[in-house]
Amino acid sequence: MNLLLGMPAVVPIWLLWFLAASWHNPEPTENDGMALWLVIIVPVVGLYTLLWCTANRALARRTSLAAQNYWLLSVTGTFLPTLTLIVLYP
């Protein structure tokens, strides 16, 4: 399930990476500031995080794994599609 959730997670992960990369070195021609990016990033990342947490909390109760192992596997599975794209298309 986390691999499937990881596919749309590419968008919020990329948005967070772009925000972090351009926070200190903004584009010289960018005169709108970072407020516009925050208006886009906060709802996208917030909705995805809510969806991810809701789905994983329901599964975490039913699994036989220890809590620490389950959450580690969940996060790893979610980041796998993004890491695959980074490796395939550098």
Overview of this protein structure:
This protein is mostly helical and 90 residues long. Helices cover 79% and strands 0% of the residues. Helix 1 runs antiparallel to helix 2 and helix 1 packs across helix 3. The protein starts with a helix and ends with a helix.
Properties at a glance:
mainly alpha
* Alpha-carbon distance between the two ends: 26 Å
Outline, from the CA principal axes? elongated
Major sheet attributes: none
Estimate what percentage of residues fall within beta strands.
under 5%
Helix/strand class: mainly alpha
Q: Provide the low-confidence segments as ranges.
A: none
Q: Find the count of extended strands (DSSP E, 2+ residues).
A: 0
Q: Helical segment tally?
A: 3
Please bin the fraction of helical residues: over 70%
Mean of residue pLDDT? Answer: 88
Rg over CA atoms? 16 Å
Order of helices and strands: HHH
